[in-house]
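We give the entry.
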Amino acid sequence: MRINKFLSEAGYCSRRQADSLVESGQVFINGQRAKLGDQVEETDQVKVNNQLIKQKTEASVYLAYHKPGGVICTTDVKSPNNIIDAVNYSKKIYPVGRLDVASTGLIFLTNDGDWANRLTHPKYEHAKEYEVTVDQSFSDQAIKKLRQGVELKEGLAKADFIARVTDNIFRITIHQGWNKQIRRMVEDGGYQVKALKRIRIGSVKLGDLKVRQWRPLTPEEVESFK
């Protein structure tokens, strides 16, 4: 199998994260620096930063976590306020996708690389819903603009759905998930985001899960992304 699939199935990281590790020269197969697309056999020895990686034998883990502001979505435990220490789970897991450090709300963590890839790969277009608080009354014209789309460097970013909650709070659903996408869309209209909370991914809602708490996803929730 390809090296990125090997690392994801071993529960080390997602395929996209594996590609980044390979590109940065941190992955070795039988003592040789790995290249993108390299194949791995059962008898091969794979190391990442001198850590031997073995195929996963333990059960898969799927968690929903209510991330607070200030927690960083990184697996680097040397980084202060990293999400791994914040969740403090007994098995090795990693976050699926990202929420920027100031944002709060729903994020998944897992040790299933293929499942993580289905959630993060753009072709699957899983809807993500956010509650956004801005610094002033959000005009009807601003809402219309987000529906029509805002041109960002990655392309046209537009709301799949948007609805006002109060004068300065609205809910928005997108599927693209570009870096700080909603913040940039809002800032393009001359507003500033004061608070941004993700309240849904696909069919899974944040619900009454309290800040800093996590819960296992149900089998039905896990299956909905496969």
